[in-house]
User: What shape does this take?
Amino acid sequence: MLYDQEIGRWLGSSVMRQQSQYHAYLQDLRADQACEFLLEDASFINWYRASNSENLVLLGEMGTGKTVAMGFLVDELRRRSELQLPQAKLCFYYCQNAGPDQAAQILSCLILSLLDQLPGLKKSFYEWYKQAKSAGNFEPSADTKKLREFLQRLLETIDRQVFFVIDGLDECDMASRGVVFECLGALSQKTPRLKVLLSFRPQEEIMDQVERMSKITLGCDTKRDGLIVRKAFETQLSRLPKDVKALVIERVSHLAQGSAIWAKMVIELIQTRGITAFGPMRLFLEQVPLPSHLSELYSVLLSRCTSNDINNERLANKALAILAIARRPLSILELAWAVAMGTAPLEVTTVAALGETVDHHRLMRLIHPFVGHLDSSDLKKRQVRLIHQSVKAFILEHRTDQLQSPATLATADQVTLQQRTESLEGLLLEICVNYLQLEEIGTTEIFPEEQVVMEALPRDVDLFSEDALLVDYEPGCSWEDLERGMVRYDPVDRGFGEFFVYASCYWIHHFGAVTTHTLPSLTSIENLCRAGSTRLDNWAQQNCRPDCATQPRFEFDSSLYDPLSITSLYGSEAMLRGMLENSDFDEGKFLPNPLIGAVGQILQWGDFARVKILLESKHGHQLKNLDFFRLIMNRWSAFSTQFKDWDQVFDHVDFVLDISVRERWAGELFCVASGAGCKPLVRRLTTRAQHNTELKNELMRGLWLQ
Assistant: This one.
């Protein structure tokens, strides 16, 4: 009691009280059953049973329940120590929203915790502290070297096991983390009875420091999620009807995807809104809104990662927006190149110049809490994705406005979720299109003729054996399985950079998703799809090789395409109408007869409704002729398209009845249809002729001439 007040003032007894209160809060929160698997993990068992000093790390992404799990282990270690003689001593610290100089606070709390458990050592600490002050160190509790020195002395006098449990080291700044790691490393070497348990997110710079430590990783486990949801439900929503309870537990457990914090906050949101009936609850769970507390957490975390620097925020927002709308996981390099393209100044017009602006290390540091654990040794592995759907919801609700130009910026009330999503689609489309317009992609062929010949030859195969032409195929196997062992290429070797594959394969998907103010410029699409261009051929060749196997998955003959046919197949209806209204088809960017070419591609691969859009355009007269219907019948007779809904196509004969009679080719059309066995067209012509004397006479004339 003599020293308690002064020691508490020096070391921060108020912080210790906050730590104890937070631990008690975690006890009320947690579902012990969801944590018990840790006790059966081999890494934990070996760490606990080790006779010498050992370190153990608990890893997990943001929101996976690391802190709750650490609280469980604190109580379990305490329980076990009560059964031992002499009893082990345990000190814990939870890093929460840590600011600078956290190392001193962590070490102070560890010392104060040991002194509280071993009060006989307080006198030694008191005398040491006074001695340090008299030597000119006015505040030894802020000096990490002095604190480390005393902690070492303290541990040397203890004749029993000591556990240090520190949660959330990733919350600390880099300098504080470095001090703590250095201190714990030195203490572990000199104190054989010390065991250290740490937890943090698997950041690259931290993982390098714990490479040799044993590790447990908290991943996605539906059963564990169910236990967490059930505990939260029983604590906050226990009075709901059984059927509603079952619905909530099943859906929230499924949607949690390992995010314990999201599950907890959704339960709190249900309680706040007071939803009790089955129907409203089902509607709520079909599109769960982002809990406001989780949104605040994400905002704080993003601000901390970017250090509130405008340039950092711009890069992080761009990267998260790209990940929110990307059609597949990206590689670290793909994301870095995409962000570089999205933030590049106008004077960057080459792949080489863009490459000079790429900094993937910086980018990953800015967004690391929001993406899954990454294998930093493989920069080309397609592994970067958002850790949870709530991060995407956060981006859509709170970050899209920062990506828009002032001209398109609208108030939050004016912008719907669909518009926000389309805004992201437009962002990534613009990045893809701009990337594919870099100079090298328009001047260098991705497959030089000699390379096509050489790489098409199979390796280690007797070309003169009949078996050489046989390919093993199993129904239901994936493209990845089929392409395993095939010869591959890397577009980077051709000078196309790291984002060429994604941009080539997926720009058309984003192209079809934009409809209004996010539409790309006609000029950019016309340049990208210019008929006969090297640029069109390059991205088309890559499009049919999404995993860079030399053998294409499907044929994509770029010589058959131009801006109109590509837009007819892949662009939105608004984009197609805009091109038909505003493009100059006589310019050299298009094929000689662009509308017929577009119809041919639509009838083979596309949406038949697009044909009507072409017919109704100001260029529709180019289709009102016999060649148009010859093309329709040719595609109709092809087996691959025979089972589509052709009625809407043959109904287009109504567009040409007058002109076919006036120009006297209706009879020839009837004869061609009859000869081709095209009953749908023959039937429509004869039906219309029953009510149209001029058409009837023309058909009869055609039959007579035949």
